[in-house]
Amino acid sequence: MKYPSYIFSIILSFIFFIPSLAISSTKDIEQLDFANGLFQRGLYEMAQAEYQKFVEVHPESTYLSESYFGMAESSFFLKNYEAAKEAYNKYIEKFPQGQKKILIQLRLGQSLFFLDQYNEALKGLLGVSLEDLAQEFHQVLYFYIGKIYQAKNENELALENLQKSFDFNSENSQATHALLAMGDVRLAMEDYEGALLYYNEVYTKTELEDVKGFALYKQGEIQFLIKDYTSAVDTFRSLIEKYPQQKVAYDARINFFLALFNVSKYDEIISAFEQEKDLMKAEVNFFEIYYIAAESYMQLKKYAKAEKVLDSILVLEDLTDEQRTKGSLKKVEVFVKVQRFEEVLAIIALQFATPVREEDHILFLKAESFYGLKRMAEAYETYKNIMSKYPESPYMLDALYGAAHAQSVLSNDQEAMKLFIEYFQKGKNTEKRLEVLYNAIVIAKNLALLDEGIEYSQLYLSNFPQSTHEENVSFWLGTFYAEKKQHSKAADVLKTFSEKYPQSTFLQEANFLLAYNLQSSDNLEGAIEVYGKIEKNEETEKLLYTALKNTAFIHLEKKEEGKAAIVIDKILMEFDQHDLDNATILWLAHQYLTEKKFQDALRVLEKIKPVEGDLVNIEAVAYFRAQAHKELGEHQKALEQYEVVLTTDGDNIYDSAVYMEKGLSLMKIKNFLAARKEFEKTLLQNAEDNTIAMRARFELANVAKQLGELEQAAKLYMLVAVLYQDDYYSPEALLHAAKIFKSLNRHDEAQKIFDEILKDYPQSEAAGKVKEK
């Protein structure tokens, strides 16, 4: 804010007109009359000389007191307050009962006020008797008492007395100055609204254009102070247009440009500058406006024009050192912007080798040039120099920002991260604070600094919601928690992310991590649901594959083998590059056999990967295929596979079962003799296993029955019934034996066996059949 160089005079007070004594004819009266006439015409120095001559020539005159008073008043109106004070005191000393004593007390107080002797002035003015003081001077008395209290920062007393001065006569010029002073008091009290009201009232009431201009300026000043730059622009523009010749117009013009700059109206600044450039020729007085215009061109990236404006003002010989340094540095800034870094370094070495007040600015421009030339180590050291040497510099934060980036380019990641965070904590530029915090998160992510990643991500999300990188940071926060094995927190963050960003490129990965962390938190149903949301494409194939494996694992953990089989089958069929081993595929085939999904069993067995010398798997595959074919009624194919099992020189773990299963298939194709051999082999190989032996004997009985060997069949059925206590085979064997006896007309034996079934196995299927008959 540019404050006015012009201070409006407040020394308005009633001039005491010394009465003309022209009616007398004496010489002393004529001389005094002459002095008074000069005084009344404002020729105070001449009047003062004549009063002095009168005192010297007529020391015994009855009008001597008038001359002493005239000398004092002349000094007062000449603003020689020290001389006025001495003259008023001399009058009191010579004429203690003088006619002008009360007025002189007022004048003496005013003089002391202007000499900044406030306590003495206040004491004198408070001692003036209002009863003895001419009424026309009451307003002046209140005014100066108020001004003294204002100078002493006793604002309430100041306002009280200034208001009295205004109320005494609200229409004269003294009232106007009272209003201005009350505006100043309100401004000092930071009551900006109240101050604006006073200044506006002055502007509205007064007819004096210089006062109007000053009051308008004060309004603009306050608007600028409270950062109402738009209103300040309008106010200063109005002042410039209405009162272009007033002294305050110069400062108003500068502040007009400053206010426009503060609301980023760079185009408007340039437009106004170009329009008024002829009126504001490149002169020292207009240095600030040219400087603002150059800065505005820079903001608009019109660097050539900015350089031209600066050149037009820098050629002036009468610039102050401060102005020349300021303008030269701005020109160097232009060179930095257009990447003329070598020139910048050369100019600094040539023009600014000797330290100046702007050394921090020079160092910053030097650091920026090093950075632009990719001389990062030098850039960093120069930025660091600013930070350590000038911690209060306006360039300190930008130096911190540059130092962080320099360290990042130098791959000093941890130091860069530290500096980025320091800028985030201290910086004022929101856009840069957002950027550096994001950079710190990226570094933490790349260095696997999980605690820092979590802390910085939380700061980012709380400080910059709805920002450009919020999506990335939200996702990374979930990954940081996941890697820390804080599964519940990870799940919460990733769930929110998936809901908020359904179109995110991270969605599939986020869903996978969400499901994994739900799984790790024992929320198995939730994990299955989210794993199921992962879609298959080129980018997510690996995620989907792992998701399916994890889903299968969860189903197995929950004893949901059927569901696990569906998932494993999906992996097997949809992923050519799967890593499922043959044991898993055999488990799947076995599960399908259990579920009687025989075609599915055969299908998945085709996915078995042959391994040279792996005879166990050859046997297993052949056995499962044989079982599936058998259950599908494809007995010839089953027999071929059973033969593979029996002829493979492996562990022979399926041989015992194969003899039985082969025999059953042979039965189905009515090759009973061959079937008998297989059942006999089964019995021989499993003599110690009662269950298999019982089954083998039962099937041998069936073979004998099919061959018409009824006696042998009945015997074998009874053998099963007698030797074994089995809820199914024992009553079934008895039922078959009874039927044979009945067919052989051995009804009594048959009936005994029927009774035995009903007695010993009343709940069996065989008992039901007996009851039906």
UniProtKB/TrEMBL annotation:
A Pfam family annotated for this UniProt entry: TPR_16
PANTHER family referenced in this protein's UniProt entry, alphabetically: CELL DIVISION CYCLE 16,23,27, CELL DIVISION CYCLE PROTEIN 27 HOMOLOG
Protein name, entry field: Uncharacterized protein
PROSITE patterns: TPR (PS50005)
SMART domains registered for this protein in UniProt: TPR
